[in-house]
Structure formats: structure tokens, C-alpha cells
TrEMBL record, chain A:
GO terms for cellular component: centriolar satellite; microtubule. PANTHER family: CENTRIOLAR SATELLITE-ASSOCIATED TUBULIN POLYGLUTAMYLASE COMPLEX REGULATOR 1, UPF0705 PROTEIN C11ORF49. This is Centriolar satellite-associated tubulin polyglutamylase complex regulator 1. Residues 287-331 are annotated as: Disordered. Regulator of the tubulin polyglutamylase complex (TPGC) that controls cytoskeletal organization, nuclear shape, and cilium disassembly by balancing microtubule and actin assembly. Regulates the assembly and stability of the TPGC and thereby modulates polyglutamylation of the microtubule, which antagonizes MAP4 binding. The keyword Manganese does not apply. It comes from Canis lupus dingo. Residues 318-331 have a biased composition (Acidic residues). Interacts with PCM1. Interacts with TTLL1, TPGS1, TPGS2 and LRRC49; the interactions link CSTPP1 to the complex TPGC. Binds to alpha-tubulin. Belongs to the CSTPP1 family. Keywords: Cytoplasm, Cytoskeleton, Microtubule, Phosphoprotein.
Automatic annotation (TrEMBL), chain B:
It comes from Vulpes vulpes. This is Leucine-rich repeat-containing protein 49 isoform X3. Gene3D superfamilies: Ribonuclease Inhibitor (3.80.10.10). The keyword Repeat applies. Residues 1-21, 341-355 have a biased composition (Polar residues). SUPFAM superfamilies: L domain-like. The gene is LRRC49. Residues 1-30, 325-362 are annotated as: Disordered. It comes from the Eukaryota. The keyword Repeat applies. Residues 278-311 form a coiled coil.
Length: 331, 658
């Protein structure tokens, strides 16, 4: 836990990297917001609850978009919350349009921007017919990639455009033509007949990007895996491949595998309990006539700290027993 | 013919019909006269075509002024010699085709040519004293050549083929005009007949009557068996003060239900209708019925005016809405003005609105007012209460909820319909709606810009909603496949019966719960306590704020609010955290938070700085400490290397301290 590398970082950088300040600021802000209510039961308890909810991933519920986007952990928590809340919609088999998914997103985050949802939809639909229906799993995985790695994807898009136009940001321009240059500048006629860009070249640029990018990137090894399967690929082809890649999903840790997407036994149990109350729907809660102003709650689920669903961490080099909260994606 | 008889009594008692003892001499070419029983001698004349009439001198003396040539099978008028003082001449029942050879009879007062074959009125220009002219049952097609007959008293043209009344305006002494059984299609051109008291127009094809009010003496008008179907076509009769006797039987108008009282109402001067005396009772009934009809007409006119106003206003509101939604480009302002200047003066509009206020319903005739009570109608919005429905068009209409509604009216309203109003604006007045219209169970939304499922959360604050109708027009949210289930889920505590007209089944409820139940569970049990409080508290705070904004805070209200909040608690608590804040409020709140965020950031930065400084110092100390410690130990060891000198030093220090 107290690895020398961690302590080697200067203070600010360390705090920034772990986004500690973000959470602290937010906690203090929340405290200020609700000081009348919170002062009733103590500040210490407030902080406990706050950080517990951060651990459990429930801190992002009904929060504004700027907060949800602030840290990778928040993003992952949001994805997970979305999956948990609306898994039933997917299970029902309904195919929904982009706008409907956006509506559902807005139920959890009122000011979620439409552009993100649109971009996610574009991945699923390969930039075609934006009004098409999408299945829950397709959308969810595409959305995950788009939302979690949004900054990364923007840079990738820029790189892709450059490559398409024939400019390679990586190569050094040498007056004497080398084989590399020949490959970089195919005649325009060639480019139009072949779709997309060359995979290996693409990978080189991405590798550089991952190195110098301060935002989260997918693990380079996995990216290489994705790109090694094909000769050429288009931008959206690449994104689709990313979204469907199991390894990346696992690396992110927010969502279960595609096969398990509809399974959540704990929640299903809860749902059955709720459903059992439906026929006698007339005031299922009249059994709790509390005079207090606090709503009566079912005993809070002792939420275990949120762990990513897959513990297959041993593979990676950095298995120093670091807490589960840190993802490879954050390095 | 009987009427003519009675009016001719002035001429004396001798009946024309008795065969007179005259003789008609006949020309050789004419058919043999029927001289049986007659003393008519027709001698041949010098003119080959016309017979010459001669009478015996006894006859001349006996019946000096009258001559009857009835049924003589005459085909032409004979030449009548030596009878210049003749006053009555009878040519009935012959076959005469032209009126001729009587120009010399300039004293003629009575001329009877009934039942002949005359085709044209002519040959009468010298008969200036003629008073009675009987030309019934002929073949006359046109009234003409009567210019000189200024003393005419009776003109009988029945049974002819006359199509038009004309050339009679000079007959200012005419008292009886008989045009029955002709081909008249309308009646006009009656001016100048200043003495006319009887006009017989039976058995024609008359569809309208005009100019009768120009006949100052007309008392009897017979229009039986014509083609009159409305009173408007004979409306001039109402203006004739002299008319006392009229017949309409055999006309289509007589079959109408309103026939009798309409005639009686419009012609108060009538004494006989269709040959029956008009009783007082009938007159009274007629006036009552007419008054009722008038009222009804006025009322329906008012209603149609109101409807028109309403329609225009709604159109105006719709267009403003479309502009707002950027659906149509901004058109020239003068066109806008044209629409806003509805047919009536705006001041008049306001005037009419005041009178239609619900408090003053008592003054309106309950029998005639329909349930429609048009309320404030201005150009930009429309508020209307129609029995059990309150309809609001345009965002300005929301202000009307502040008005003092009578308890009765407000209590009757069970349906509230919103059109052309932004849903976000509606959300803000929902608390008011809850209070002012406690029985509203059915909400309808059309063109209200419902785009997010989240917006339905706002409806949860109402007391009870039984039915919900979201019109697809202008509400994109209806295009979502799951919208109904979400509504059922979020508003499950209402146990809604119908959505958009379709019944809600148990399966629907189950499906709704199945789809969104986990959302509710997550929203309630997984939120930290302080979030729950803040979200719920927020909602309640907002409600209080709205209530405070209404006129005065009544003490009774506070209790209600408490019980309300208790009920809110009692309802599905796990959904209570699913709220809807309108976009504006949300952004407002985010703005407010910005300041706090900035402060927090600064505060945290200070804390971090402090902490890092301390940490740095700590680390520096940690680095330096071993060295320092060694030096400390070394110093101490060096100091006490020489035990005796150290002891002396310590003692010295102690004494120095004293």
C-alpha cells in the first residue's frame, strides 16, 4: 500500500492523480449546500457517508454532469449505476432510439448533454441512420467507450483525420524518401478506394498518444490486440471494436461481460419483492406512518465498497496489491 | 263571379244574366246564331265580317242601358248601332277573340267578356267611363292598353295567362283586382293603386310579394295556392297597416311549424287568417313564441360570436406558439396585427368578458345559456370553463389560476386541459392548481413541449390524478416506447385509471414496476442520508415557496401542508426522490453553487497547501533528524566524557540559576 513510487510523487501531483482534491472539494461543497440539514446529525457522519458513497459508486446519482464527468471513477460509477437501474429495460428486449436512451440518462443526470449520447449512438450505428433502434447492450458498451474515454477518443479522431489526409504526426519528414513515407502518402486515388487507415500505422500514433495523454486511455496492450486483427480500419470500425472488446470492458471494470449483462441476482431479488407489492399498490408504504419529516427507509443495504466485477488482476505487472479502486486506466 | 256581383249592386237590380230581348243580326259567313228563345236578330251588315246588332224598339226602351249577348256563339264582337247610351254590356260565354266595335259606346260602365277567347286587351281606349271590366277566363297574356280607363273600379283578369303585373299604376280608383289562376311568379309594381282594397292572387306561382305596403287601402289579400315558403318573401305585408284579411293556405309556408305565429306576430293588424278569425289567445301565443325565438336567435348569435372569438384567439395563440418553437419564420408584423385585431373592438371584447364572469351567471337566462361560459378572451391567451373542463391556451392563461374562482365553479372542474403552454411553466403553477381546483382528476396536455420522461416527475406533487392525456401533437415524449410505463411507475401512488384514453391494466402496472422498480430502489435506498434529506427537503421548500407567493399565508394552509407532506411520506417513498426541476431553476441552482464551489476550491487549496507544507516540513525533518540525532548524542557524549568537570559544570549552572 505504501509503495515507494507513490510516495515519490510530489504532493500536488499525487493528490491530483488520485483526484483526492475533487472529492474533498465536492464534499465541502455539499456540506455548505445542506448545512442546516447536516448539522443536525454531525459533520463526521456526513463525511463518512460521503466517502462511503464514493466508494460504493452512488455519489453520482442525480448529480450535475460536470461532477459526473470530473473523475474516471465517477464516470465508471455512473456507467455502473445506469446499467443497474436500466438493466430491466434491456432485459425486456425493447429496442430504443438514441433519444430514448438519452431520456433514461437524463433520469439519472438531468443535464446530461445530448452530444455524448449522439456520439455513442454513432458508434453503434456506424455513423448511419441516427434514428435507428439500438439494443440495450450495444448502446451501453458503445456509451461506455464514448463516455469513459471521451477525451481520448477526440484525440484519436483528430489523428484519424490527419492520417486520412495523409499527414502523419509521428514521422519525421526526411527529404530522402523512405519506405515509411511512401506508405504515408498514398495517392489520393488509392486512399479513396481503400477505406480507413492502416492499422499498424494507426497503432503507432495511438501508442504515442497513450504515452503522453494525461486523460485515461485504454490499456495500450489491448489496443494493440484490437488493431492487430485487421489490415485497415475506419474510425467507427475501430470504436466498435473497442466497445465490443471484452478485455477493455474488464479493464474498465464498470460493467459485466456482455453475456452477463442481464444478470444481477441481488437486484432481481429486490425487484421481485417490489413486484409482490404491486397488486396491493394502494399505499404499500402506509405500513410506515412516521411522523418525522424523514422518509422511512428500508434498512440501508450495507453496501460493500464497490469492486469491479472481475478480479483477474494477476495478469498485469502492477499487481502490488493496490486497492481495487485504481484501474489500469488511470495510469 | 259572386264578388263581382256584390260590388255591382250599385248599378241597379237588374241581373245581367237574364236574357235580354235583343236581336243580333248576323253576317252571312258567321255560324248560325242560337236564336231559340231569344229575340236576337242579327242582320247582315254592309261589312262582310261583322254582324250588326239591332234591337226592337220595345227592348230599347225597356232595357235602354243594358245589353246581354250571352252564349250567342259569337266569334267577333258585333257592331252595335244606335246604342250610344249603353251602359252595361255582357258578352259572357262566347268565342270572341278580339275586343272590337265597341269604341262608340262611350258611356259604357260595365263590360263583361268572361269566358271568351280574347288574347289581348285592346279596343278599350275610348271607354273612359268604364268602371267594371270583367275579362276572366280568356287567353290574355299581358295587361296592357288600359291607359284611359282611369275610372276603373273592378278589374277581373282571372283565369288568363298573365305573367306580370304591369300597366296598372294609373288605376287610382281601382278597388278590386282579381288575378287568380294566372301565371304570376311574383308580385310587384303595385304602386299607384291607391284605392285597392281587395287583391286576389289565388292559384298562381307566386314566390315573393313586394310593394304591398304601397297600397294604402288594401284590406284583403288572397294568396292561397301559390309557392310562398318563407315569411321573408312576403315581409312587406308586415308594413301594411290596412291589411286585415289574408290567406296563405295551399302554400308551402302553411305547412311549417312556425307558420301561424310568425304571421300573427309580424302582422298584428290581421283579423282573419285563412278565412278564420284570429283570436286573442292565438295572438298572445304567437307573441310569446316569437319572443322565445328571438331570444334563441340572439343567444345563438352570441354563442357563435363567442365561438368565433375563441377560434381566432386560439389560432393566434397557436401561431405565437409556433413562432416560439421556431417552427415558422417570423412574418411581417402587419400581418400579426391583422390577426390580433379580431372582428370586434378590443374594448368591446373586454366589455363582454366582464359580463361573462362566472360570479354573474345568475343574471343570464338559465334556460337559454348553454354550459359554455366563455371567460377572459384576449388576443394572447384564452381561459375557458365548460362545465367540468378548464381549458387554458397560451402561457398567459396560467395567471388566471390566481383569480378568485367561485367555489362552485372550481369544485365542478374535473378536467384541466393545457394547450400551447410550455410544460416547465405549467410545473410552476401545479401547486396553485392543486389548491384552487381540488377535484381536478384528468389532465390533458397538448403542444406543451414534453420532451423528457423526467418531466413527469413533476406531476407527482398533485393530489390525485385519475387520467392523463398527452396529445402526440407538440409532445415529443409520446414517441418514446416506454413513456406510459414510466408515468405509471412514477405516479403509481395515483392508481391511474386511464392514459390517453386506454385503460390501465394490472399488467401495465406490473410491467412499469418491472422496468423501473430498480431505479426507484436505487434512488431511495442507495442514496446517502444527507442526499435524501436535501432532495426531499428541496422539494418541500419549493412547495412552501409557491404557497407563500400566493395571496397571504393562511394559517389553515400550514396544517394542510403538514398533512400533505405526511401523505407524501406515506406514499411511495422510494420514488419521492425522483424529482423534476425545470431547466431554468436547475441552471439557476448550478449558478448559485458556482460561488460555493469556488470558495470550496480555495479553501481546499489552502488546506492542501497547509498539509503539504506540514508534510514537507515533516519530510525534511525526517531527512534531517538522523543527522541531528547523531549530533545531539555526540554533543551529549562529548559533554560528559569528563565526569568530574561535567559534575562541576552542572553544579555551577544550578548555583547560577539561583
Amino acid at each position: 500500500m505504501l509503495s515507494p513510487e507513490r510516495l515519490a510523487l510530489p504532493d500536488y501531483e499525487y493528490l491530483a492523480q488520485r483526484h483526492v482534491l475533487t472529492y474533498m472539494e465536492d464534499a465541502v461543497c455539499q456540506l455548505l449546500e445542506n448545512k442546516e440539514d447536516i448539522s443536525q446529525y454531525g459533520i463526521a457522519r456526513f463525511f463518512t457517508e460521503y466517502f462511503n458513497s464514493v466508494c460504493q459508486g452512488t455519489h453520482i446519482l442525480f448529480r450535475e454532469f460536470s461532477f459526473i464527468q470530473a473523475t474516471p471513477h465517477n464516470r465508471a460509477s455512473f456507467l455502473r449505476a445506469f446499467w443497474r437501474c436500466f438493466r430491466t429495460v434491456g432485459k425486456n428486449g425493447d429496442l430504443l432510439t438514441m433519444r430514448e436512451y438519452h431520456c433514461l440518462l437524463q433520469l439519472l443526470c438531468p443535464d446530461f448533454p445530448l452530444e455524448l449520447t449522439q456520439k455513442a449512438a454513432r458508434i453503434v450505428l456506424m455513423d448511419d441512420a441516427m434514428d435507428c433502434l439500438m439494443s440495450f447492450s450495444d448502446f451501453l458498451f458503445a456509451f461506455q467507450i464514448q463516455f469513459y474515454y471521451s477525451e481520448f477518443l477526440e484525440s484519436v479522431a483528430a489523428i484519424y483525420q490527419d492520417l486520412l489526409a495523409g499527414k502523419n504526426p509521428n514521422t519525421v519528414i526526411v527529404p530522402t524518401s523512405s519506405s515509411g513515407q511512401h506508405r504515408q502518402r498514398p495517392a489520393l486515388g488509392e486512399a479513396s478506394t481503400l477505406e480507413g487507415v492502416e492499422a499498424s500505422l494507426f497503432y503507432q500514433c495511438l501508442e504515442n498518444l497513450c504515452d503522453r495523454h494525461k486523460y485515461s486511455c485504454p490499456p495500450p496492450a489491448l489496443v494493440k490486440e484490437v488493431l492487430s486483427n485487421v489490415q485497415r480500419l475506419t474510425f467507427y470500425g475501430f470504436l466498435v471494436a473497442l466497445s465490443k472488446h471484452h478485455g477493455i470492458n474488464q479493464a474498465l471494470g464498470a460493467l459485466p461481460d456482455k453475456g452477463d449483462l442481464m444478470h444481477d441476482p441481488a437486484m432481481d431479488e429486490e425487484l421481485e419483492r417490489l413486484l409482490a407489492q404491486v397488486p396491493g399498490l394502494v399505499n404499500s408504504a402506509t405500513a410506515n406512518p412516521e411522523a418525522g419529516c424523514l422518509p422511512s427507509r428500508t434498512p440501508p443495504r450495507v453496501g460493500s465498497p464497490w469492486r469491479p466485477l472481475h478480479h483477474a488482476r494477476k495478469v498485469d505487472a502492477e499487481s502490488d496489491g493496490s486497492t481495487e479502486e485504481t484501474d489500469e486506466s488511470e495510469t | 263571379m259572386k264578388t263581382t256581383m256584390s260590388s255591382l249592386s250599385a248599378f241597379g237590380d237588374s241581373s245581367i244574366q237574364t236574357p235580354s230581348k235583343s236581336r243580333i243580326r248576323q253576317g252571312c259567313h258567321s255560324a248560325g246564331p242560337n236564336v231559340s228563345g231569344d229575340h236576337i236578330n242579327l242582320a247582315s251588315s254592309s261589312m262582310p265580317s261583322f254582324p250588326i246588332l239591332q234591337r226592337s224598339s220595345e227592348e230599347k226602351i225597356l232595357y235602354s242601358d243594358r245589353l246581354t249577348l250571352e252564349r250567342q256563339k259569337l266569334t267577333v264582337c258585333p257592331i252595335i248601332d244606335g246604342e250610344e247610351h249603353l251602359r252595361l254590356l255582357n258578352f259572357q260565354h262566347n268565342f270572341i277573340t278580339r275586343i272590337q266595335n265597341i269604341s262608340n259606346l262611350q258611356r259604357l260602365i260595365f263590360l263583361d267578356l268572361y269566358d271568351n277567347q280574347i288574347e289581348e286587351i285592346s279596343g278599350l281606349s275610348t271607354l273612359r267611363s268604364l268602371r267594371v271590366l270583367l275579362l276572366g277566363k280568356n287567353r290574355i297574356k299581358k295587361i296592357s292598353n288600359l291607359e284611359n280607363l282611369k275610372s276603373l273600379d273592378v278589374l277581373d283578369l282571372h283565369g288568363n295567362q298573365i305573367t306580370k303585373i304591369e300597366n296598372v299604376s294609373h288605376l287610382c280608383d281601382l278597388r278590386v283586382l282579381n288575378l287568380a289562376r294566372n301565371l304570376l311568379s311574383h308580385v310587384d309594381n303595385l304602386n299607384g293603386l291607391d284605392s285597392l282594397t281587395e287583391l286576389n292572387l289565388r292559384h298562381n306561382q307566386i314566390t315573393f310579394v313586394r310593394d304591398v305596403d304601397n297600397l294604402p287601402c288594401l284590406q284583403r289579400l288572397f294568396l292561397s295556392f301559390n309557392n310562398i315558403s318563407t315569411f321573408e318573401s312576403v315581409c312587406c305585408l308586415a308594413d301594411s297597416s290596412s291589411l286585415s284579411d289574408i290567406t296563405f293556405d295551399g302554400n308551402p309556408i302553411a305547412q311549417e311549424s312556425w307558420y301561424k305565429h310568425t304571421i300573427l306576430q309580424n302582422m298584428m293588424q290581421l283579423r282573419q287568417l285563412d278565412m278564420k278569425r284570429v283570436t286573442e289567445e292565438e295572438r298572445r301565443m304567437a307573441s310569446i313564441v316569437a319572443k322565445k325565438e328571438e331570444e334563441k336567435k340572439r343567444e345563438s348569435h352570441k354563442q357563435s360570436l363567442l365561438k368565433e372569438k375563441k377560434r381566432l384567439t386560439i389560432n393566434n395563440v397557436a401561431r405565437k406558439w409556433d413562432l416560439q418553437q421556431h417552427r415558422i419564420p417570423n412574418i411581417a408584423p402587419n400581418q400579426d396585427r391583422k390577426v390580433s385585431d379580431s372582428p370586434q373592438d378590443p374594448s368591446q371584447l373586454h366589455g363582454s368578458t366582464v359580463s361573462a364572469f362566472p360570479e354573474e351567471t345568475g343574471s343570464l337566462d338559465s334556460g337559454l345559456t348553454s354550459a359554455l361560459q366563455g371567460l377572459s378572451v384576449t388576443d394572447t391567451h384564452l381561459v375557458e370553463v365548460d362545465g367540468d373542463t378548464l381549458s387554458l391556451y397560451g402561457s398567459g392563461a396560467l395567471e388566471s389560476l390566481d383569480r378568485n374562482w367561485s367555489v362552485q365553479t372550481a369544485g365542478m372542474v374535473t378536467t384541466v386541459s393545457f394547450t400551447f403552454i410550455e410544460f416547465d411553466e405549467i410545473v410552476q403553477v401545479l401547486p396553485k392548481l392543486k389548491i384552487k381546483f381540488p377535484n381536478s382528476l384528468h389532465l390533458k396536455f397538448k403542444e406543451t413541449n414534453l420532451v423528457m420522461l423526467q418531466q413527469f416527475n413533476a406531476l407527482a406533487q398533485l393530489r390525485h390524478v385519475d387520467q392523463l392525456t398527452i396529445d402526440p401533437q407538440g409532445n415529443p415524449v409520446v414517441n418514446f416506447t416506454l413513456w406510459k410505463y414510466y408515468v405509471l411507475f412514477r405516479l403509481s401512488h395515483f392508481s391511474m385509471q386511464k392514459i390517453n384514453g386506454t385503460e390501465v391494466t394490472q399488467n401495465d402496472m406490473i410491467m412499469a414496476e418491472r422496468l423501473f422498480g430498480i431505479l426507484a430502489h436505487v434512488a431511495s435506498s442507495e442514496l446517502p442520508q444527507y442526499r435524501l434529506i436535501s432532495i426531499l427537503g428541496d422539494a418541500r421548500k419549493k412547495q412552501f415557496r409557491y404557497l407563500l407567493e400566493t395571496k397571504g399565508k393562511k394559517p389553515g394552509l400550514v396544517n394542510e401542508e403538514n398533512s400533505d407532506s405526511k401523505r407524501l411520506v406515506g406514499e411511495n417513498t422510494n420514488r419521492a426522490t425522483l424529482n423534476y426541476t425545470t431547466r431554468d431553476f436547475y441552471n439557476e441552482r448550478l449558478e448559485e453553487i458556482k460561488e460555493k464551489k469556488k470558495f470550496c476550491k480555495m479553501y481546499m487549496e489552502d488546506l492542501v497547501k497547509e498539509a503539504t507544507e506540514i508534510n514537507m516540513k515533516n519530510e525534511a525533518l525526517q531527512k534531517l533528524w538522523p543527522q541531528m540525532f547523531i549530533e545531539l548524542v555526540r554533543d551529549a557524549v562529548i559533554e560528559i566524557r569528563n565526569k568530574s568537570s561535567y559534575m562541576k559544570l552542572c553544579l555551577q549552572q544550578i548555583t547560577d540559576q539561583k
